[in-house]
Amino acid sequence: SGMSFFDSEFVQKEMQDITVLQEKIYQSVFRFFSMSKEEKMEHVDDLEELLNKQKILYTRLSLSDDPKAKDMKENIMKEATMIGFPADVDLTTVFTNMNAMITNMKKAIEREG
């Protein structure tokens, strides 16, 4: 098809949402420990939403033949290795592990005073 992967309104909106969420998360990550219980929960919810959006986008990128989509997928892989994941890791596994991490974070916050 002549239409690029990135011409899709869905993809553009998802990428926009991801950027907004990332900025919100980066801003609050440094004051995480001084946050109230409610703020911490909101932060973790944002994190979870971000991961879910990235997971969907990654899955769509994986199914696309668009060269730009392939480039973006490679960039996501590079970012993953920069934060310590093995270069040959399957990102689906990474997302699954992150879901477990988020569940644990929520439990930990709920246990707080």
Please render the helix and strand layout as text.
Layout: H1 9-29, H2 37-63, H3 67-82, H4 91-111
Helix pairs in contact: 1-2, 2-4
Structure characterization notes:
The longest helix is centred in the middle third of the chain and has 27 residues, at 37-63. 7% of the residues are buried. It contains four helices and no strands. Helix 2 (37-63) runs antiparallel to helix 4 (91-111). The N and C termini lie far apart (56 Å). 75% of the residues lie in helices and 0% in strands. It has 113 residues and is an all-alpha fold. The radius of gyration is 16 Å and the shape is globular.
Model regions low in confidence, pLDDT < 50 over at least 5 residues: none
Tell me the helix content: over 70%
Q: Please write the string of helix (H) and strand (E) elements.
A: HHHH
Distance between the termini: 56 Å
Shape: globular
Strand content: under 5%
Give the mean pLDDT. 85
In short:
This protein is mainly alpha-helical and 113 residues long. The protein is built from four helices and no strands.
Q: Which descriptors would you attach to this protein?
A:
0% strand, 113 residues, 75% helix, 4 helices, mainly alpha
